[in-house]
Amino acid sequence: MTTAQRHSPAQLRQLAQEAGRELEDAPALDVLRWAAETFGRRFCVTSSMEDAVVAHLASRVLPGVPVVFLDTGYHFPETIGTRDAVAAVMDVEVITLTPRQSVAEQDAEHGPKLHDRDPDLCCAMRKVAPLEEGLREFDAWATGLRRDESPTRADTPVVGWDERRRKVKVSPIARWTQEDVDSYVVEHGVLTNPLLSDGYASVGCAPCTRRVLEGEDARAGRWSGQGKSECGIHL
Length: 235
Ligand code: SF4
Hints:
- This protein is α/β, with parallel strands linked by helices.
- It contains 8 helices and 6 strands.
- The radius of gyration is 17 Å and the shape is globular.
- The mean pLDDT is about 95.
């Protein structure tokens, strides 16, 4: 798995287009197996540590798979605890990315609580930029995006081309439902963020995440009332 050849951006784009067609209806494990065989250690999983489902799936086909986590400095303690538990018990290599500025440094330059005044700028500095840098060593990355999470994710391809980063973007559970996730968690004893049992349906940074109400979609608790539904990583 570690000797997979490197690919040029043109080759990566072609691989993404072909696999996007061929793997659209494939089981998640088959999608990840293709990614592992094609990219080897130049393939990683990104995780918000809401749960470890995709990391678990990937570790079954690529033991020691890199799992990239963005530590924004604003996470709930439960999220950091989930990250640490994943690193301790799973056959993965957790890689924690941090922003260039600490929260204190950002406050000094931009004023406190930038997340309340300009969440797009805060996300750009604390999530988008660190991920750009962290993904440089990889040709392909996997996400836990699902089409049923929100209208903005309804067209998520199982395998697609990430033009902005010029990488293959794999969403092996794009076609899964919440019930599929819950079943997998129970069947395989997968680690989940304790906040999911405390009214949160989607877990992000503490200042920008609230519990969801009955009937709301899973991401309704993210940047609630701020006219924002994505951090910018998946746009
Ligand atoms: S989710 Fe909120 S706190 Fe986290 S980086 Fe984005 S704006 Fe900042």
